Amino acid sequence: MTAAPDTGPARLAPQVTPPGSSDLLRSVFRRHAAGVAVITALGPSGPAGFTATSLTSVSAEPPLLSFGIGTGASSWPAVADATHVGVHLLGDHQRDLAATFARSGADRFGPPTRWRTGPEGVPLLDGVPAWLVCRVRARVPAGDHRLVIAEVLTGDPTGPGRPLLYHQGRYTSLPD
User: What is the pLDDT of residues 39-98, one digit of tens each?
Assistant: First the structure.
């Protein structure tokens, strides 16, 4: 019997949080780079929106996407009742916009945010690399969140900028 080759110092056992804990989920997903989007909707008291890193392409036929939103979020009442939403992919030049839409209590649609009313009355942000207007198809309960599934109706993928990413708890961009 031969001994295994020496591969260097032994790795220390990882520090693992308790199974099923929200801390474990957060710790793992901090290591997952995600694109940054802002979701908007027109609510009874005006435009609403929030920063999301949970945007996912679901289906090509029909064209469906999904995103998650906490039921305690200030934008949830608008999204809960909206028939249509706006989905905006942010560029690396829009870190301040991402932070504004992520901040609780912020006047998200006040200056310096530039926006206009788009199709179906959806608030559309100006200067984003890409935007979509979608019809909400389902809101699926998922713990303290809802998974919103929406069908793409129209949009524009030709705006300026490189993608904004969220990684390790901060906004970043792709290396050159």
Answer: 999 999 999 999 999 999 999 999 999 999 999 999 999 999 999 999 999 999 999 999
Residues 6+ apart with CB under 8 A from 3: none
Task: Measure Cα distances from 7 to 4, 15, 128, 173 in Å.
Answer: 9, 22, 49, 35
Domain ranges of the chain: 23-166
Q: Which tokens in the block code for residue 56?
A: 């996912």
Segment 9-18, tens digit of pLDDT: 555 555 555 6
Neighbours of 55 (CB within 10 A): 19
Q: What is the pTM of this model?
A: 0.85
Please state the CATH superfamily assignment of the domain spanning residues 23-166 in this structure.
Electron Transport, Fmn-binding Protein; Chain A (2.30.110.10)
95 contact partners, CB below 8 Å, separation of at least 6? 164, 171
